[in-house]
Specification:
The protein is an alpha/beta fold and 375 residues long. It has an eight-stranded parallel β-sheet with strand order 8-7-6-5-4-3-2-9. Strands 19-18-10-1-20 form a five-stranded mixed β-sheet. It has a five-stranded antiparallel β-sheet with strand order 11-14-17-16-15, with no helix packed on it. The longest helix is centred in the middle third of the chain and has 19 residues. The protein starts with a strand and ends with a strand. It binds pyridoxal-5'-phosphate. The site of pyridoxal-5'-phosphate has 12 residues, from α9 and β9.
Length: 375
């Protein structure tokens, strides 16, 4: 029995995948499960999605994640989007996973390692303006011979990633990236390289701009029922897009309840004193678990469906909350850190706003050692 745990709503996850697939038309859906499935737990997420018709691919960042996915689900294709050290490429080919490649070193190494039994399936990533991973289109002519030289290296996909879709309603920069992607695609085609799967869209692009969907969309955040931004949500919903359902609820339980007289300081540094005679609850959760220290004196949790404010500093493994207005509170009872209880809801967006980050970071930073329970 864990004292803090994350509940994953399996049907919400599956419904989101189905709704995203339907909204994306003919494009296939890749479920992005990197970063411990955005904090939702890689294993329960893959277990919940495998076999679902809407999900055609899994996408992850590292080879280790890909091996875990393959072990759970050997038949569905997996794309490793992040860096794989050259020393591990052989292992990647043997596992049958597809790899994003964007430099000479990787292309030449996989070309040499690929065999009839273990072919290399590569998705070439084009630099179109994110200035992160990717090959400049101008460098393609130098790399094409490397690809053509190896009979067992297959350019399965062609890809890029947008820099500025979530944060703006102005698509001009993204459309410039799209244009450069088309240019790279034509250039490859003129040299006889014809990837079967072209893909550029993560959640926001897939939800907002049909021209970015091509053959496949790589949805991460939206799959978990979260929106890349409020602007994305408002535009998509105004256009009749899918109502996404949050998948994750993070809970803990009360370790101790006690009274504190008015004026008593709470927690390290004596940074906050209770302003009235108060009842407090000590929760066995802290910044080590991913309950951010910036929530000190600011955050709220749900006790009996009512908001209870964090008092003083969040500690490594404990947090104190004010339960004076929360009705009868007993040790052991469950408390919601993120999610709904009765009519109240603490969203990942609310937590993100309080600590100056984005919902992506709030959920991915929930400590992976915390138990994930499918409900
Ligand atoms: C290359 C790539 N594709 C897709 C995604 C999924 O993005 P989102 O969670 O916004 O759907 C990411 C996430 O960072 C990414 O880096």
């Amino acid at each position: 029995m864990s004292r803090t745990w994350v509940e994953i709503n399996r049907s919400a996850l599956r419904d989101n995948a189905t709704a995203l697939k339907r909204w994306s038309g003919r494009a296939k859906l890749m479920a992005i499960v990197k970063a411990n499935a955005y904090g939702h737990g890689l294993v329960p997420t893959v277990q919940s999605l495998r076999g679902l018709r809407a999900v055609n691919w899994f996408g992850c960042d590292s080879l280790d994640e890909a091996l875990q996915i393959k072990a759970l689900n050997p038949r569905q294709p997996v794309l490793v989007m992040g860096y794989v050290p050259l020393a591990r490429l052989k292992e990647a080919l043997r596992a049958g996973v597809s790899l994003v490649a964007y430099n000479r070193e990787t292309l030449s190494a996989v070309g040499q390692l690929a065999s009839a039994r273990y072919p290399a399936k590569i998705h070439l990533k084009i630099e179109t303006g994110t200035s992160r991973q990717g090959i400049w289109p101008a460098d393609l002519p130098k790399l094409i011979p490397l690809v053509q030289k190896s009979p067992h290296l297959q350019v399965e996909g062609l890809t890029t990633h947008y820099a500025n879709i979530e944060d703006t309603a102005d698509p001009r920069y993204a459309m410039g990236q799209l244009e450069r992607f088309h240019h790279a695609s034509h250039l490859l085609e003129s040299q006889g390289v014809r990837p079967q799967i072209r893909h550029t869209a993560a959640s926001a692009a897939a939800l907002l701009y049909p021209v970015t969907r091509f053959d496949l969309v790589r949805t991460g955040l939206a799959l978990y029922g979260l929106w890349p931004s409020s602007a994305t949500r408002d535009t998509v919903l105004a256009n009749g897009g899918p109502q996404l359902k949050p998948v994750l609820t993070w809970k803990t339980q009360v370790a101790q309840v006690k009274a504190l007289p008015k004026g008593t300081p709470v927690s390290y540094g004596l940074t906050e004193k209770v302003k009235r005679d108060s009842r407090i609850a000590v929760l066995p959760v802290g910044y080590w678990d991913g309950f951010d220290r910036h929530l000190s004196s600011k955050g709220e949790v749900l006790v009996n469906g009512r908001r209870a404010k964090v008092l003083g500093r969040v500690c490594m493994n404990m947090t104190v909350v004010d339960v004076t207005d929360c009705g009868a509170v007993r040790p052991e009872q469950a408390v919601v850190l993120l999610g709904s209880a009765r009519r109240e809801r603490i969203s990942a967006e609310e937590l993100a706003l309080r600590i100056g980050t984005i919902n992506y970071e709030v959920v991915t930073r929930i400590n992976p050692l915390i138990e994930r329970r499918l409900v």
